[in-house]
Amino acid sequence: MAGNGVRIGVLALQGAVREHLAMIERCGARGVAVKRPSGLSGVSGLIIPGGESTAIGKLIDEYAFARPIREMAVAGVPIYGTCAGLILVAARVKGKHGTILGLADVTVERNAFGRQVDSFERELVIAGIAEQDRPFRAVFIRAPVIEETGPGVEVLARVEEGVVLARDANVLLGAFHPELTDDERLHRYFLEMVAGAGGASGTEV
Ligand code: GLN
User: How many CB atoms lie within 10 A of CB 202?
Assistant: First the structure.
């Protein structure tokens, strides 16, 4: 199985940390809450969760996470940004925004479904992950959308408003919260990426 024993970090500054850790464990991998940059060493993949991107960005600055996370991404360690995490890993965010890590060649718009729309669900068909006969029930919470993708970016799912799941090499980008359902398919897909990348981060910090 893809996940066996491998250590997956969840950036644990703010947001939906526990739910991702639980999902990782259900998939047979070890979930590690990463609270400081030293916690990145030895993880083979990193999830940046949903929450509030401005708050997480400030804490990324405060604890000097940007450089080691960028180094991990350049070294090919898989990184999965969901919702606020997507905003933080994007190269470009429309409007004013604090820290962004610039790991993926996409332009993101925050709160793209209207500020008044708090949350909603949509059934998504995702190429190679969730086919027509068993779509993925995606939970969107004040969600961003990917408005533009660079030439190297693979689009995995889109809705009327834009792209909601994409992959730029070792960076997976999702606008919705896969950890809030029972559906393990996206975490398993990420663990396959990790298995394919092979190897823990040796980031020394
Ligand atoms: N709208 C939030 C932000 O801009 C993201 C929401 C979420 O992560 N569910 O940070």
Answer: 12
